[in-house]
Amino acid sequence: MIRRIDDAFVPDGDDARRWAEEELSNPRYADAKPTWFDLLARDVGRFLADLFSSENGAGVGPSALIIVIVIIAAALVAALLIWGRPRRSRAVRRGRLDLLGASDDRTAAQLRSDAERSAREGDWDAATVLRYRALARGLLERDLIDPAPGATAQAIAREASAVFADESDALRRAAVAFDDVRYLGHRATAASYGELAATDERLRARRTEAVAA
Hints:
A hairpin with a 2-residue loop joins β1 and β2 (8-11). It is elongated, with a radius of gyration of 31 Å. The chain is 67% helix and 6% strand. α10 crosses α11 (190-205). The chain is built from twelve helices and four strands; from the N terminus they run ββααααααββαααααα. It has helices at residues 13-24, 27-31, 36-51, 54-57, 62-83, 90-94, 108-120, 124-141, 153-163, 168-182, 190-205, 208-212, and strands at residues 2-5, 8-11, 98-99, 102-103. The longest helix is centred in the middle third of the chain and has 22 residues, at 62-83.
């Protein structure tokens, strides 16, 4: 029931409670709720304030205060490292679909097989694109590179060169061959594809233990 007093509407207890519930159900109040990190920071701040207060400061030595502060700082850093930084697992890296501007879930072996089929048909352009993707996919599957999403052929070649320093020139030429066909419209040849395939086979044959060493 709503009473009118001097042109002002005053709700009774039930109406006031209902209006308050409707107002608090507004999404803006939920969005403004503090996160777990905000609550943790607040509690730590209160703890430190109480620790350094006049009542507690006299009974705690400076060495003990320093130790407590170091422990709290270490705990905060550990929390940020564990929950604050997203980490990609090997399975995520290996299963990445986006590779060199195309969404493709084929394995390195499947890409090599398709590249060889195109080569037998004389389609050197398709064979070149597929073979370089097979090279990149193979390095991903072996956890030898971890390129950023959307990495270019040149970026992948540079990252792979950090692992196979003696193949840096061959990797650069392989990336150029891919870019020439994929983006510049140049025609690949049997010779250019053969060089790319040979580079892929050499990297494929390198043992992981030898690479790590």
